[in-house]
Amino acid sequence: MAKDRQPFIGIFGRRNNGKSTLINRLAGQDIAIVSDTPGTTTDPVKKSFEITGFGPVVLVDTAGTDDIGELGEKRVSKTLKAIDLVDLAILITTENQLEEPEKTLIAEFRKREVPFFIIHNKEDITPAHPDFELKAKASGAKSLLSLTPTHPIEPIIQAIRDTIPESAFISPTLLGDLIRHGDIVLLITPIDIEAPAGRMILPQVQTIRDVLDNDAVCIVLKERETDAFLRKTGIQPALVVTDSQVFPKADASVPAHIPLTSFSILLARLKGDFSNYLQGTPYISELKDGDRVLMLESCTHHVSCDDIGRVKIPRWIRSYTGKKLEFDVVAGLDSIKRSITDYALVIQCGGCMITRRQLHNRLQPAIKAGIPVTNYGMAIAWVHGIYQRAISPFSGDTQDAEEII
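Structure (tokenized):
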């Protein structure tokens, strides 16, 4: 795994506490609007730049958590959701304030296991009180720093360096540990009604890039060309990756000795909670009449008449189980309207459009409630009877799965 990812750092606090000012000082330039008017920053804004003495980062500038009114409540809600994005949080406070707005943020940091430190800003106007310092240190913050307009910024940079987790810098690979230099990887990519005109879907593009990054050879074809290609060329790929929707066709076309999996399962391993997916997938066979299944589709797209998450997977699962089941679909990062305990199973898409942290936080309520979770590709493989083959390329990750299945 290469250290080439830009970490996300979130700046949080009340209005007019100096969040945007801090961003400008870290950047060494005016990239955030600074004003004495409360609420200048409305929605979370991501800004990419390099912190001198640290490196490239993405800073997330957020609205104040003490915003008021109906619109203010929506801004605060977006600020809290932004916590799902970040690898490190910086909480800025002034005037010894560590009350409800700050406590709410701290509770969310801890709930999502986001490391954070606190800056007591405008120290030249109101110095930090010993009682405040005790509360700050007891909050779980990694450190407490003071800041004035004339204070050097280096201690803040050092705190970032000391607090940010190592994983924030690591860009994991989709299949780098499955292939070697010069290997041939065959990608089976159907072009159907859901494929964007003139383009490929993001998981396919990401996989092509990952194959090339690992100095392997990538061959891309449609499902109906697979049999003829393998027969005519005699090529024995080191790995075949297929769109989950054509798993049965790929399973029939690709000789059994050649490893086969899907784009969705690669993403499940890269971004999802793969160990919980392995445990949760077999529960498809335990579904009963009247059970409700939650489909988490973490992107927004044009819905076709044969949509994978809304139509095909529900149809396949109903056919496989023979049960009368109810399916709810929640798109993007919209709130889940029902209680998570209303569901017998949660099925998450690959998550190509969201971060790993966002996806894990999305699944946590179900996992903590003991609700089985799985992934689109793994669920499709299960109902088509090719689950073991689809997960076998990840033998190092699946040792416990065989005991469950």
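The longest strand covers residues 45-51. The first helix runs from residue 19 to 27.
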